[in-house]
Write a structure and sequence with these properties.
single chain, 253 residues, alpha/beta, Rossmann fold, 12 helices, 7 strands
Length: 253
Amino acid sequence: MKLNDEVRVFWEQGACGSGKVIVGELEPLTKEWYERIEQYRYEVEPFIFSIAQFPRHTGKKLLEVGVGAGTDHLQWARSGVECCGVDLTEAALEATKTRFALYGFNSNLQRLDAETLPFPNQSFDIVYSWGVIHHSEKPEVIVSEIRRVLKPGGVFIGMMYGRRSSFVFKLWVRHALLGGKPWLSFADVVWDKVESVGTKSYTNDELYAMFRDFTDIELIPMLTKSDTDHWPRWISKFLPAQWGWYIGIRARK
């Protein structure tokens, strides 16, 4: 089975961010279910708003790569953005379509592998992708496709995982050092132990290289709950942002 097929099988079990630990026994695809997902997402990841800056893009045309449960996609729609979205899974498309119908919005949604985007050159003002591209077999191909479909002056906004992070260090200690396999690299552990198989993580230099054909590349490291959990409070509050699991990205074509 190809890697992207394995990734699809994993995420067909449920749209990202909709696990039982978040929604409990709420009925799926109901307003209460969606609102619980949204509440949790922005409690845990409030920095999404400062990276995406949804209201600043009113009237623009957006493509989201990896819509998940449609939480951020709905924020774009609420901000007056013309929305298109793609995802590898039917689970995500069903969740997002139902969510948009409940809240009275529209989006052009398609299930496909983002390594080949079915849009003409220079179609979008914004391409957004939060925590998705690093699951693909060939993230660099998706980045190339994103640049192709952006208009001149258009912007990519998103997030990818950072390898030199507190979270990955804890994973390495647990699965490599204490697991009797200290020769495993941080990248090896992320590949096998984070979400779907084949998950990748990056250094700043690797991300700059991946986005080298863009201009005005801005990387914003962010500490997450995954980074600070299980450390004593007095230690976690001193962890620098540079050790964060998330790296926000803004890059202009």
